[in-house]
Write a structure and sequence with these properties.
It is a single chain. The chain is of the alpha+beta class and about 280 residues long. The chain is built from one helix and twelve strands; from the N terminus they run αββββββββββββ. It has one helix spanning about 1-110, and strands at about 110-120, 130-135, 145-150, 150-160, 165-170, 180-185, 190-200, 205-210, 220-225, 235-245, 255-260, 270-275. The strands form two sheets. Strands 1-2-5-4-3-12 form a six-stranded antiparallel β-barrel. A six-stranded antiparallel barrel has the order 6-7-8-11-10-9. The protein is elongated and about 155 Å long.
């Protein structure tokens, strides 16, 4: 009887051991299969997700490029607007300076009756010859009146219309047309008369001829109109002496004059109508 109980106990113990081993083996097999399945799924996911990620990255890159291009275009447009504004501001500053010069000139010419005008036409082919201003006979302008700009004489009226006039410049190369009677102020109440007869484009100087050979002229002496020609009034400033020499015949002095009036960027002018009361 006792032996039978032992035998049954051993049999039950054996069955339990076998069941535990089997369960363990089954769980191990399931873990291997599950792990393999998960690894395979992850690998397949990577295969399909990588192209998708590449496409997403490409789309994002294109989008960033488009945004950058649009931003650059806006910045370029803004820069161009700023450049245009700077050009306009510079031009206005230059224009204001010209207007201040003309105002100062009118104060100097207080003993004269004057009319202010604006340059409306200046032909590039005749840049140093003539220009057209926006005042004419309606404002009392007449032929041969003196015209000034900046601080000095620049020419005279040669053609008059009701609302405009043509100015012949002192820089003109027309023979005799631009000649002006002038006087060098040599100091101590003395002076030397002559004629401003031509303009040297290379040096940028007027040439004054037929000057008294004995006159004591120095560099820096002022040159003004003499009024002896009967057309241009006296005491209008032309420039200052740059150099002095004898002419080719040794009879007269020749004086090179550094112009004081505006020569290139002429925007505003003052026409001398006549002397006031």
């Amino acid at each position: 009887m006792l032996n039978n109980k032992k035998l049954i106990g051993l049999l039950i113990s054996g069955i339990m051991i076998v069941s535990l081993v089997t369960y363990s083996l089954n769980n191990s097999a399931n873990n291997v299969v599950t792990s393999s399945f998960n690894d395979a799924g992850a690998w397949i996911g990577r295969i399909f997700s990588e192209p998708v990620n590449m496409v997403v990255r490409f789309v994002n890159s294109v989008d960033n490029l488009v945004n950058t291009f649009e931003e650059n275009s806006r910045l370029k447009e803004s820069i161009e607007q700023v450049d245009q504004l700077q050009v306009r501001v510079s031009d206005l500053e230059a224009e204001n300076e010209k207007m201040r010069q003309e105002l100062a000139l009118k104060q100097v010419l207080s003993k004269f009756t004057t009319v202010s005008g604006t340059v409306i036409t200046r032909n590039p082919d005749q840049w140093m010859e003539t220009l057209v201003i926006n005042v004419g006979s309606n404002e009392g302008i007449k032929k041969d009146m003196a015209v000034m700009s900046g601080k000095g004489l620049i020419g005279r009226i040669v053609e008059v219309n009701p609302k405009s006039s043509k100015v012949l410049l002192l820089t003109s190369q027309q023979q005799n047309a631009g000649k002006v009677s002038a006087r060098v102020q040599t100091g101590k109440g003395t002076s030397a008369n002559g004629i401003v007869s031509s303009f040297d484009h290379k040096k940028g100087y007027y040439k004054m001829t037929q000057v008294d050979p004995n006159a004591q002229i120095k560099v820096g002496d002022q040159v003004i109109t003499s009024g002896l020609g009967g057309i241009i009034p006296s005491t209008l400033l032309i420039g200052d002496v740059a150099s002095v020499s004898m002419d080719d015949y040794g009879l007269f002095q020749e004086v090179e004059i550094n112009p004081i009036g505006e020569m290139t960027d002429i925007r505003f002018v003052t026409v001398i109508i006549g002397e006031g009361d």
